[in-house]
Amino acid sequence: MTTKFARIISIVFHPLLVPSYALLLLMNFQTHSILAIPVGYRYAIVAFVFLTTFVLPSILVFLLLKAGKIKSFEMQTQRERVLPMLIIAMAFYGTYYLLKQTSISSLVTFFMVGSTMLVLIALLINYILKISLHMIAWGGFLGLLLGFAINFHYNLIIELFIMILLVGIISTARLKLNAHTPLQIYLGFLIGTIGMFFLFFLI
């Protein structure tokens, strides 16, 4: 894998895009709770989540960059990550709160709760170790699929295979860019996957 390709992978599969990707996939599941949502409304929800979990946090982080609070979007030091991660946690929780006021599937709001929880866990660990946010996010996506498949007896073999392949590609890209050590990659993946997976047994 070349450095240029690794950078493209890191951007296309940025952690802030995971909620939008995940909901886009969820909205195509043939379950009673999802089928109850009108098709047009489903994609309006995905667009709303994209705005609140990607566009809004990105703008706020850009303002932090302009204000000199962070040196780059990569946030290479643990200290630089604190404010952006607080912003992301608030954006994710705000998204959950607003979605909860509607009558949409509880699965959607549940995923946003799980995503908020993972950001807060990452923030706490950040004081000790610069953990991989890419791996926490994509591990959480994998945990969502695993939990959904087991809890709802839904066949997601193909989706799980693709997700595992993607996780491998993304982790390789992060290592290629020297963004993280293998420990930070593995730990992020395990926390994301296990954290989101076990949430399914609390609902």
Uncertain runs are none
Please report the number of helical segments.
9
Helix content: over 70%
Strand content: under 5%
Radius of gyration: 17 Å
Can you put this structure into words, describing what you see?
This protein has nine helices and no strands. The chain has 203 residues and is mainly alpha-helical. α1 packs across α8 (157-176), α7 (133-151) packs antiparallel against α8 (157-176) and α7 runs parallel beside α9. The mean pLDDT is 85.
Furnish the topology, listing elements before pairings.
Blueprint (H helix, E strand, L loop, with lengths): L2 H10 L5 H9 L5 H4 L3 H28 L11 H23 L5 H21 L6 H19 L5 H20 L5 H18 L4
Describe the structure in brief.
This protein is mostly helical and 203 residues long. The chain contains nine helices and no strands.
